[in-house]
Queue: 2 jobs
Job 1
Amino acid sequence: MATTEVRGLGHSVKRKEDERFIRGKGNYIDDVTLPGMLHMELLRSPFAHARIVSVDTSRAEALPGVVAVVTGELMAQHNLAWMPTLSGDTQAVLATDKVRFQGQEVAAVVADSAYVAKDALELIDVEYDPLPALTTPQQALEDGAPVIRDEKEGQTSNLIYDWEAGDKEATDRAFAEADQVVELDTFYPRCHPSPLECCGCVADVNPATGKATIYMTSQAPHAIRTLFALVAGLPEQNIRVISPDIGGGFGNKVPIYPGYVVATAASLLLGKPVKWIEDRTGNLISTGFARDYHMHGELAVKDGKITGLRTSLVADEGAFFADAQPSKFKIGLFHIVTGSYDIPAAHVRGEGAYTNKAPGGVAYRCSFRVTEASYLIERLVDVAAHELGVDPAEFRVQNFIKPDQFPYESATGFVYDSGDYEKALRLALEKLGYDDLRKEQAEAREQGRLIGIGLASFTEVVGAGHGKQYDIAGLRMFDSAELRVHPTGKAILKLGVKSQGQGHETTFAQIVAEELGIPYEDIEVQEGDTDNTPYGLGTYASRSTPVAGAATAVISRKLRDKARTIAAHLLEASEDDLEWDRGRFSVKGAPDRAKTIQDVAFAAYTDLPDGMEAGLEGVHYYDPPNMTFPFGTYAVVVEVDRGTGAWKVERMVAVDDCGVRINPMIVEGQIMGGLTEGFAIAAMELITFDEDGNCIGSNFTDYLLPTSWETPSFELGETVTPSPHHPIGAKGVGESATVGSPAAYVNAVVDALAHAGVRNLEMPVTSAKVWEALQEAGLAE
Amino acid sequence: MADTAIEPTTAQTTRAVSVTVNGESHAAEVEPRLLLVHFLRQTLGLTGTHQGCDTTHCGACTVLLDGVPVKSCTVLAVQADGRGITTVEGLQQGAELHPIQVAFREEHGLQCGFCTPGMMLTSVALLQENPNPTDEEIRWALSGNICRCTGYQNIVKAVHHAAAAQASEGGS
Amino acid sequence: MYPSRFEYFAPTTLEEVCELLDRFDGEAKVLAGGQSLIPLMKLRFAAPQALVDINTVAGLDTLAEESGGLHIGALVRHKTCERSDLLGGRFGALGAAAPQISDPIVRNLGTVCGSLAHADPQGDWGSVMLAVGADLEARSSAGTRTIPIEELFQGPFTTSLQENEVITGLQVRDPGPKAAGTYLKLERKVGDYATVGAAIHVSFDNGTVGRAGIALTGVGPANLKATAAEEALAGRELDDDAIVEAARLAAEAAEPQDDVRGSAEYKRSVARVFVERGLRAAAEGRSDG
C-alpha cells in the first residue's frame, strides 16, 4: 500500500476554506437569516459628555414596522443597563444617567427591517444637558477636572490605575552612572483595527426551550459565553455562541459590545430572533480602538552600550476601562519594552485615565500593547544611534541579546525562549544592499534628493499564556484541541480558538497531518460553535499557534501512541519493534509488514487489543510553560518630496523569525497584511477629537485605509529559530508586522531629514508634518 | 427635519423592477430607496456581495452592472431595472470555477474573504479591458477595493495568474 | 446607511425631466451618477422628496470635439474622460484630472456635469473648468440658457442653477491651436479629497502666453481662480521667471485653512509648488508636472 506524500509542516498547501470564499458562499454574520428575524439599530449620543434629561420614544414606537424601542431605563429594570468589562470595570450597555463619549449607545429600535429601524431612530427624542468634554488624559488628570465616572462609588478622579514593572533603583543607578542619556517623548495615536466586516450578532432566544443561540462576530466565543451567562443571568448550558465566518478581527471582535447585550435582551423579551449589524460609523466611533499612548522613554548609555531603560506612559482608556487583556496587567505586556536589547536595568510606569472617548485600547494586532512598547524602543534606539553618531544597524548589533544568552531573562521578568537577532538583521541588510544604499543616499543628498533608510529590530511576546500569570476575566489562558479519527481514517479537529482569516482550517490540519500522517485534505477543522468545540480562550494576540497549535500537536501525539498499540496488535509485534514513518507503522527489519494510520483507525472501531477502549479520539487542554518570542528586522527605504512633504516607500524588506513555519504561504500572507497595517498607522490612520469631544475619524472619509495604490511592495525573508518549549517549535506570527513595522517606516522618514537636524516625527507621519519639518530644517522646495 | 420623508407618500411606495442577475431574470416590487446591495442580498438571497462601510469607500459591495464595476451600495435597485448584473455567484459556470477564482486561491489572494467577491469582479473587468496588465495598472484598477488582510501583494499576483491562464486558454 | 423614503422617476425625455422638476418645486433632485448624491442620502444629509433619474434620457452622453472646443454631455462619466484620447494635448488639464477623480469604481458612474452641479468646494472638475474655461447648458421648462463656469459656483454646494433647472451638458471653450495643461492633486490616498489641487492651462500665442488659466482646489471656500497670476502671464514668454512669479501670485491668492490635512501655510506652499510644476510641464508640452 503506497502512501502519497502527506504534506504537514513547512508546506505551502492551498487553503481549504477558500473553496467557499471564492464562490461567495462564506457564512458571515449578516448572511445569517432566521425565520421571524427582526432588525435592530442603535441610537448613539451626539455629545461626548452630557446628562440625559429625558428620553421620549413614543413617536418611534408609533412608526409602522417598529416592534420595540429599548432604552437604558428598560435595561435597568432587568439589571442590564451596565455590564462588566474585560478589565474589571463596568460599561454602560445603554446610557441611563449620562453619556460619556460621542457615539455612546443610548437606545435601540427593533423593527421589521433595518430601513424602518433607522427611520425610527430619528423619531426618538432625547434631551441632553451638555457637560465639558475631557479629550486628553492630561486634561482628565488635572486637579479639579470633572469626574467622568461619577457613578462609580469611590471614584474621585479620572485616574484608573498606576502600574509599574522592573527595578526602579537599579534603573536609577544606571542612569546616574551613564555617559549619556537619550530621551524621547512620543505619542502613539488612537487608531482602529477596522476590519472590513463590522461587528454584529443574531440573538435567538427560544421562548419554548429557553435556549439562547447567539451568532456573533466573536474571536473568543467560549469566554464570551461564560461572561454572558454571568451578565445576563442565563444558565450557561442554555447559551450557545456561534461565531460564523468572520470578515477580519484584528482584536476588534474580542470585547462584548452593548449591541450584543441589547439584541439578546430584545430577543428574550420579544421571543423572536433579533439581528444587529453595526454600520461603519458605529464600528469606528464606539468599538475597541487601539493604542492612544503618550509615552516617554529614556536610554542610559555607557561606553556605547545601553545600560538602562526608563519609560513612563499615560494611557487614554476612554470612558470605560475595557481593555481586552490578561487581567493581571494594566498596560498589557508593555514591559517587553527592552525589546531585542540586552538592557540590565529597566523600569516601566504606566498611568491610565478616563476620557470622554470610546473605550478600548488593546486591539489592532498589538499583542497586548507590544506594538506601543516596540515602537518606543525602536524609535529610541534610532534616536540614540543618530545622537551618538553610530550607524543605526551597528548600534543595534552592539546591544542585541546574543544567541548564547538564551533563554534570556529580561530586566522586567520575561524569559525569552530563543533568538538570533543579528542573523535576522544581517539578512535584512544583505537583501537591502544596505551599504550601497547608504552611498546612494549620500549621493542623492548632493543632488538635493532626500532618501531615508529606516530599521526596526523587534522582539515581541505572544502565546498567552501560562495559567498562573495569564487569565482573561479570571479564565486561565490555556487552549484546546479535540481530535477524532473516524473509522475510514479521516478526522475532525475541534479547537477552542477562532480564525478570522488566518487559515486555521488548513494550518491546524497540517499539524495533525505532520503528527499522524493523515492528509490535511482529510481533516476537517471546526471552530467557533461553543456547543461543538472544546473550551478555549480564542484567537487574538497571536496565541492560536503557540497554544492551540501545541494542544493539537500534543493530542495528535497521544493518539499516535494509542495507534502504535493498535498497530502492534494488528501486526502481532511488540510496540518497541515498530517504526513510524509519517502515516505508517512498520516492523523493524521487515518493512513490508506494515499498517497505515487508516488501517489503525478502522481497527480502533473493529479490532482492538483486549481491554482497550474503542475509538481514536481525545482532547487536550494545553497550558503553555512560557510565552514565545518572535522577532525580526524590517528595513524601509523612502524618498521624500521636498515640495509637498509626501513620502513614498521605495523598498520594504522584512525578515521574520517565527520559529517553525507551518504553512510558509500563510505566514507570508499574515506578514504582508501586518506590514500594510503598520504602513497605514505610520502614514495615515488617525482617530482624533476636537475640543468638544467630537470624533474625527468615524467614517472612511476621515479614517484613512490605504488602497492597493499607496501600499508598498514587500520583499520577505526568513530565519528560523525554533521555540525550544513549543511542541512543534512554532512561535506565532500574526502580529509581528504590526508590532515591528511602524517604527521602521517612521525611522526611514526621519532618517531622510536627520542630516538637517530633524530628530523626530509623530505618527501619522503626514505629508503636512514632513513639510513642517522640512521647512524648519531649511529643506523645503 | 420633517417626518414626511419617513412616512410613505400617498403616491407610489414601491416600483416594479426587472433585473437579470447572473443570467437569471428576477422581477420584484421594491421601494425606490432600496439599495442594490440590499436587493441582491435580501430580496434575492445572494449574500456573496458584502457591505463594509457607509461612505462608498471600501468596495466590498462591488458588482458588475452590464460588465462595469459599480459599488452596489451607491446604486438604487430601481436603477438596475432592465439591466444585467454579475455578482460573485455568477463567476463560476456550472461546476467550473472562473480563472480569477482559481487564481485567488492559488496565489493566496484572500484571507478572511470579505473583500474577495468585489476584488475578483473588479479584476475580471480589468482583464476584460486589459488582458495583460502591469503591476501598476493592476494596483491602479483595484484602488477602489479595500483589503485589510492581505496587503494586496498576493492579489496582484492573483490577477497576473488569471491573466496568464486566460491568455493560454485563448491561445489554445 | 439607509436613505429616507422618496419617489423615483425615470423619464425618457428632457421635457419630462423639466416637468417633474417643476412639479416638485425644489424638493426633487436630479440623479445622474449618484456617486455624490446617494452617499449624502444614505447619511440623511439630503432627503429629497423625489429623484429624477436622467440616465434613461437619450442623447446626454456625448463626448466630442465641437467648434474647436469639447462638448461633454450630462451623462459623460469620469471613466469615459479617463479613457478618451480627446482629453490630452490642448485639453491636458482635463486629461490629467479625469483619472484622479475619486476612485476607479466611482469613476464608472460619476459624471463631470454632476460633479459641477454638486459644487463640492473640494471638487476637482470645478478647478479644471475654471482654468480651461467652459460654459454649461441649463435647461428648464422656461427654455435653455448658458451659464459660464465663472458664474456657476456661489458657495459650498451652492450654484446659480435654479431649482427647476437641469444641466444637459457643457462646452469646453476652444483653447486655440496650441495649448497645454495639467492637473496636479495632492491627496492622502486614492479617493480622498485634494489636500491641494492645481489646474493649469496655457493657450499659447506665437510662443508667448495668450491666455493662462490657473485654478486651485482645497485652498479656499470654493474652487479658486488665481486671476492675478493668470494676468501676470498674459503676453509673456513662459520662462522660469514668469513661472515663479505666477506661482507666487497664485499662492498669495489662496485662502487655505488649518485642518487635518495640514496648516494653511503648508497648503499655500504646496499651491505654489504645484503651480510652478504645472506651468513647467505646460511649457514643455507635458501634462505630468
Note: The CA atoms of residues 56 and 153 of chain B lie 23 Å apart.
Job 2
Amino acid sequence: MEGGPSYDDLFDAHARRLHRLCRLLLSDPQEAEEVVQEVFLKLHKAQGEGTAALSWAAWLTRVAVNLCHDRRRAGWWPRWRYRTDRIEDVGLMAREPNPEEAAIGEETLRRIWTAFRRLSDRQREVFVLRHLEGWTTEEVATALGLRAGSVKSHLFRAVRELRTAAGGSYR
Amino acid sequence: MSRCLSERTLMRLITGGGREAQRAHLAACDRCEARYRAIGDALDRVTEVLLHTEPPLRSPSLLARYWMPATAAAVASLALLVWVEITVWRAVTPAQPEEVTAFLSDLSATMFSARDALAAGDDGASGPFSADGLASGCPSDPLAILGCESDTSSDAPTDTYPERSR
C-alpha cells in the first residue's frame, strides 16, 4: 500500500493491544488468540483488496470487537465443547505480583476483576472502548451500532459496578 | 443550584450524561469537585488493574464446570425412573391384589371350616373335638378360640354337660 503502514508495522504496533482487548472481552486467552489471528487475516485481505482506512488502529479495534461479539453469540455448545485450559495457563506455580498488583492489594484486585466479569457483554465492550481505548462516546456508538444515549446508559451501569468494586461508597 | 450533587449524578456526569446546570454546580462546588475526582481516581484504578494485571486464576468448582453434564445425567435418571415406574412397576403391581384376594379367601375358608367342624361336634358329640371339648370343659369351643357358649348364653342346658364330664 502506498503511504500507509505495512502489515508488519500494524502487527507490531497493535497485536499485543488487541490480544489484551479480546482477552478482556472474552475472558479466555485461547479464544482471544484465535480472534487476534482472525483480525490480522482480515487486515491482510483488506490491504490486499486496497481498502483504505482513515485509522487502521480504529479499524482493527472495531473488527476485533465485532469478532468477539460474534464469538459470544456463536452459542454455548462450541464454546463449552472446545473449552480447555492450556497447561501454561493453569498456573502450576504461584506468580509474584507485579508492582501495580502489589500497590493495589490482592483483595481490591480480586473485587475489580470479579465485578468486571459480572458486567454484561455490552457494558464490558462500552467500558473497554471508552476507558481503556480512550474512544469518545460517539465513536463507541458508531462502532457498536448503538445510539449515544444507549452507550451512556451502558457506561453508567458499568462505572457504578466497577466504582463500588474499586472501593468507595455509592449512594 | 445550591444543593450538592448525588453520587449517582456525579457518575452520570463522568460518563458523559447530566445537565448543564449540574455541570455548572460541579465547576463551582469544591466538595462536589473532590467527590467527582474520587470517582475518577477509582476508575483510573480499575483501568490500571485491567490493563496491567493478570486476572486472578479461577478455580471453578466441580459444579460450575460440570453443571451441564450433571444436569443431563439428572434428567436422564429422572426419565429412566419414570419409564421404570410406567412400564415395569405398573406391570408387576396387578399381581398384588390377586395375592391378597387369594390369601383372604384361604383365610375365610379356614375359619368357616373350623366353625363347621365345631357345629358338627356340638350335634353328635362324636367328632374329633368332642374329647378335647370334654377335656377343656367347653364342648362348644374345644380350641377355646370363639368362647364357650355357656359363658355367653344363660339359657343353655347346663345339666347335660356335667354328666358328660363325669
Note: The radius of gyration of chain A is 18 Å.
